[in-house]
Write a structure and sequence with these properties.
By secondary structure, the protein is of the alpha+beta class. Helix content is 27%, strand content 13%. The chain has helices spanning 25-31, 56-69, 87-97, 100-105, 132-144; strands at residues 72-74, 77-79, 109-113, 117-122, 125-129, 183-184. A four-stranded antiparallel beta sheet has the order 3-4-5-6. Strands 1-2 form a two-stranded antiparallel sheet. The chain is elongated.
Amino acid sequence: MAGACGLAPGCDLSHIPGPVRHSSTEGAARDEPLKAPQTLRRSQPPRPIIACLLRHTQAQQLLQMACSHGPFRMNEQMIRMTADFSKETSESREAFLAHLPRLHQLEMKFGLFEPARMWITKNNVSKDFYDPEDLCIFLDCLQTGPMDTATPLQPQSLFMATTIQSPQEPARRDCYDKPQTFHPREET
């Protein structure tokens, strides 16, 4: 016999409190649960459904399947599945995304990985950035760096340095001093 939620035996959700109800008229309309025949109007904000999965691998598989299938419709409502990030992580990801036009301009390959790590590649050499400010400093050095022959370190040679910095070490450096991280990509 299925549990109270209809998913699995022993699945009892009676201990989970219902939606918070406010006494003010401002939040009351939004926090009231929808009745069966009601639907959201276009002017209403979307309602999130939060699901906590106990195993990280299952959460990753679920998000991967959701990304491959894209948003889907149920009862004429668009449903999307996304990861829930903290405010700091979301702000860091947005700051990384602000640098995409500069990365396109410099013809670099890049990727934004979970939770907030920017990976860039040029000339088969990769660099990881865990802080958007470090990426900004690095891109400034590439765009406005010295181009004369008297300077031994040209901006393009920053990709050839071998200094390694762990992600736990939040040291601030000028990009001509030492690059942040270096991970050579192995050809397979």
